[in-house]
Fold this protein.
Amino acid sequence: MDINSIMSSQLMQLQQTVQMSVLQNAMNMDTVAAVQMLEDMPQTAAPHPYKGSVVDIQA
């Protein structure tokens, strides 16, 4: 193998490693943002669709 092909192969491996690192960091940041958004949501309970209301059932 000549030096150019070795360097080319190493450069491709480095590019792949950097791309995976950037992807991993982006996924981590998205996860942190999603968790933060969920934690910031108001914790009020949604009303039940029919519990406590009058239901007229005719037999």
Q: What stands out?
A: The mean pLDDT is 87. Residues 1-38 form one domain.
